[in-house]
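User: Study the fold:
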Amino acid sequence: MEHLTTASFDLGPKPRLAYAGGNLDRAAERRADEAFVRARASEATSAFYVVGGEWILLRKSHAGLSPEFPPQSVPALGAPEETIFLGLQSGAGRFAIGLGADAIERLKTNGEFHVTDLRTIAVQGLVPFTHLPALAEAKSLLHWHARHRFCANCGAPTRTAQAGWRRDCAQCDAQHFPRTDPVAIMLAIDGGRCLLGRQSRFPPGMWSCLAGFAEPGENIEEAVRRETREEAGILCGRVRYFASQPWPYPSSLMIGCHAEALSRDIRVDREELEDARWFSRAEAASLLTRRHPQGLTAPPPMAIAHHLIRDWVENGARVLD
């Protein structure tokens, strides 16, 4: 049994979890009120987030970069493919518009703007943290619209309804709603060790928690046990929920858990992982602080995997209590 205290590791100030904890009032009950939505879109206090596929448009100002555009500036950016009512911020409307590839490429050459992807914005802190939840909402919804322009029931074209929160088919009257995919992301714990894996797409030297989509007819605890066994051959017992995180790549909900490892011998599924191994708490702490002697790292603070590892480093086996 390990006797390390939380004071054993100095991990610095606890970071915030990106894309979560937004204070936007989604005002879902007003989405069908077209007059209300139009009025909010034209008010000077309203603001628009601008997305073009994987790209986010930021405007430059004396105060730095901002993802919010006032209503009067939006027409000059290009004809939107979609406009979505995201909700209300202190009573003022917040919207997202989706631009086509040609429009966003043109704006990349305009010195008034900075065009980058959402992951870079979050990792580098390019805009105030409070914008990240709304940007995640905007990116996920616009991705869904781009891929659901035809009815899955009959194949006819669909049209936007409910201020961007539904698509309707005029041919068969089917209604289509955005979906979020649940993903179990877990840290298996064997006393003073945790299980981390590497995928080939990871940055060099980065190790992270195992993760996988929950399957139909499966709860999160079952998904945690199945994915850990499938990817690393480790059997798990107790599962404890930690936290969740919207993950707009393209539209998932990461459900973070700690799990009790019941076996120790790793058998890596090479189709899923490049490698997997056990890390001690001291070694995991060095991943988080980027002081590992071999240059290994954990995911950045924006990601729930970072927080899962940190919680275990700070609290040890108590995370399973």
Summary: Residues 1-7 have pLDDT under 50 and may be disordered.
